[in-house]
Amino acid sequence: MRVTVSPEVAAHVLAGVLTIDDATVVERHPELDAAMSGAEKVVPRQDALAEVVASVRGMYRRFGVDPTKTRPSSEALLRRLRKGEPLPRINSAVDVCNWCSVETQLPFGLYDRAAIDGDVILRVGLDGEEYAGIRKDTVHVAGRLTLADSRGPFGNPTSDSARTMVVPGATRLVFVIFAPRAVGRDVASHALDLTASRALRFCGGVVSSSELLV
Could you say which of 18, 72, 145, 149 would form a disulfide bridge with 175 (CB–CB 3.0 to 4.6 Å)? Predict the structure, then answer.
């Protein structure tokens, strides 16, 4: 699977792509649950995250999205913690994704490679493009950042599709980090490395690729 970024998106987004093969995704991992519980207490107090939050909001605005109405997935998770609510527990892969996203404050997407058809491009959605979201809502992506394969759009920095969602039993994972260029390569690279380390620890498998798309 080849992942590319369209020129109009590459000017503003530093995308990171991590693929893991031979993973074992389970519904609940007790060691992961304990680690996330610790993060839930620490992350809300990290004032340094404010700068990244502002950069992600700026990225949204560049593509015509009001981030106070359509929130980045990372900020939505942070707001949840600041209200005293725990991170959702979905399965070991999704939990790692949410943990890394809220800690770095970068929007993440997570996809089942087996459900992706052909190569992938990160581009601006076309008029009328939409997909069925994980919560059964329809996600409209016209004019917004979106990942698309030969079958059409399947993900964006706010919500992903039911078609490519990761469930227990999935073995081929694709993590995508939607980092604004303003945060710099070091921040995006750290997020990739952090995600790889945690995914291997709690989901097993092997890293087949890890790269920033420049």
Answer: 18
Percent of the chain with pLDDT over 90: 95
Q: What is the pLDDT of residues 69-106, one digit of tens each?
A: 999 999 999 999 999 999 999 999 999 999 999 999 99
Report the residue count for the chain: 214
CATH superfamily name and code, 3-213: Phenylalanyl-trna Synthetase, Chain B, domain 3 (3.50.40.10)
**159 pLDDT exceeds 80?**
yes
User: Which long-range contacts (C-beta less than 8 Å, at least 24 apart) are formed by 166-170?
Assistant: 166/25, 166/91, 166/93, 166/94, 166/110, 166/111, 166/112, 167/25, 167/91, 167/112, 168/25, 168/26, 168/27, 168/91, 168/92, 169/25, 170/23, 170/25, 170/93, 170/112, 170/114
Conformation bin of residue 195: beta by default, left when phi > 0, alpha when psi is -120 to 50: alpha
